Amino acid sequence: MRFVAWIVKIVFKIFTLFPQQNKVVFLSRQSARPFDFLLLETYLQILYPQVKFVWACLPKSGRFGLRTMVAQLWHAATASVCFVDGYVPAISIPASMHRAFCVQVWHAPGAIKKFGYQSLDTPDGRSSRAADVLGMHRGYDCIVAGFPGARACYAEAFNYPEDKIVACGLPRMDYLTSRSYEHLRTRYVHRVERRLKQQGYREDATSPVVLYAPTFRRNPQDPQWLERAVRDLAQALPSDARLVVSGHPIEAQAPHDKGVVSEGCSVYSLAGIGTIHALLLADYVVTDYSTVAFEAGLLHKRVLFFTPDIDEYRVSPGLNIDPLAELPSITYTTADAVARAIEDDVAHGTYDMTSFDAFMEDYGRSEMEPSRSLEKIRSMISPYFVHESQDSYSKELNHGK
Q1: pTM of the model
Q2: Which domains does the chain have, with CATH numbers?
Q3: To the nearest 5 percent, what fractions of the chain are helix, strand and coil?
Q4: Angle at which helices 225-236 and 335-348 pack, to 10 degrees?
Q5: For 353-356, which contacts have Cβ atoms below 8 Å and span 24 or more sequence positions?
Q6: 78-120, pLDDT tens digit by residue?
Q7: Cα dihedral 273→274→280→285 (10° resolution)
Q8: d(CA 101, CA 82)
């Protein structure tokens, strides 16, 4: 690892000998086209037509190879502004060398499970040695948090002082809450509907749509946990329910794309389509430790936590928010209990929205409705473009108001 880090620093140092450009770079090892980056690029291109926008993200093949690594190093070394949505070696290993203003737009609006420095040396986390040698989460000028309630745990997870954590919301929160994105939301909903209809989905206002969106598990004790959870939920839910499964984007999907299982309710897969878009169709959102719960909370959806492996998760990677302890009225450890809760709510309106609303308010929901993340991020990065005259900057600033 030390040799790799040494090579990365040398290559980066060579690239810094070239002039810095008026360039915004999007760097990711999570996916090829992160949705937050798409929203950022579209917004910023309108305001800064003189700025070059470059993507250096995970290839569509899913293989992060030498070519992508070198491209990320080049663009990070020569950019004015860099956006990342997770750990990127090109930013963190040569942390003391880069000239760009680097913004960590973490790929979640909050943190239910622990991550980063919070989970070092656990089975689901990284080793302390790797974190030290590879500069885990070094080199950021600021870290964007979705909600104010995330600031304290982000400070721990990134090992930064809390004043570096800026709770200005994520671009996706603008997408969910701003009227200006109504047309885009409609387009994505139609895309979700087309995918579901290819699997036999039929619109029916009397049948609840249950979205199951679990979090990513790096080293689960049960490798078949996703298939097992989908099967258990499908068999427990009412036969007229529609179970839509949206796994984590970097995790293999369960084989449930034929529209129905051998017994139980109909099951549909959304592999390849972001969970955020399926939220708009859901009547109920079932998750475990995923921060999709916060996105659903912005839409005032009914969220249920399905946590059969909570004892395992309390140990590794650990929990910032323990759903069973903090939200016991909407947290369940069996699929049968989840199904009963949904059936009772459909029949009698028994869902404990008061409890979930209080949880969301404590996390800062009212401060983010509507979200103005794009505007706030823009104001942070504007001073860092190179070769920009004061007159030009003033015009852009006025244009954005």
Answers
A1: 0.90
A2: 2-170+371-400 (3.40.50.11820), 179-368 (3.40.50.12580)
A3: 45, 15, 40
A4: 40
A5: 353/302, 355/327, 355/329, 355/330, 356/297, 356/302, 356/303, 356/327, 356/330
A6: 999 999 999 999 999 999 999 999 999 999 999 999 999 999 9
A7: 110
A8: 6
